[in-house]
Amino acid sequence: MGLFDRISRVVRANVNDMVSKAEDPEKMLEQALVDMNEDLVQLRQAVAKAIAAERRSRSQYEEQESEANKWQQRAQLALSKGQEDLARQALQRKKSAADAAAALKPQVDQQKSQVDTLKKSLIALESKISEAKTKKEMLGARMKAAKANQQLQDQVGNLNSNSAMGAFERMEEKVTEMEASGQAAAELASGGGIEDQFAQLESGSDVDDELAAMKAQLSGSSQSQGALPEGQQQQQSSGQTQNAADNSEMDAELEALRKQLDS
Whole-model pTM? Predict the structure, then answer.
């Protein structure tokens, strides 16, 4: 392939691409209807001219036939009057008119056929134009819907849903963080407050009251027993000693518990 052929092909391809991109369906349909209407006007003019020509030829044909019939009657009249020469002249005129009519007959038939063909073409073109108008309206509606859908899709495509959802997630994390910080600040603020201190004191007082009640109960039970026999006193003494040891352990345990509560 020569260089000029390649250049020519590239130029044609670029021109075709430019033309395709420049084609607007709505404008193209409108222009197509304009062209078809122009063709319709020209076809109507051609039909009118053909009809006029066919009528002229038919008129001439009928006129020559009428002339031939007239001279035929005159020849008969002259012959009936005994004027043979005059009858012969009339027959000559009849022949000339008949020859002219015979020459016009094919032309008349041809023109009539042309007129019929043109009329059919005119009817077909009118039908196509009517159909094209209907299609133009339908395609126009579809084109508007397609443009609207395309604009909608372009707008949706321009929206970055991932970044938008990411922004929502980041904002949610920030709100959660702020809520947690607020709760921590509230807890810190209330932890050193007077209300919390009194609550701790009241909690510790309950334990002390319970301990005092237990000691009073133990002391009351020992006094209610009264004087006992010596053996029982010894047993009681040893029991008291044991109780004292137990109380000492209990006190130590309670002290440990108290320290735990204080801490």
Answer: 0.47
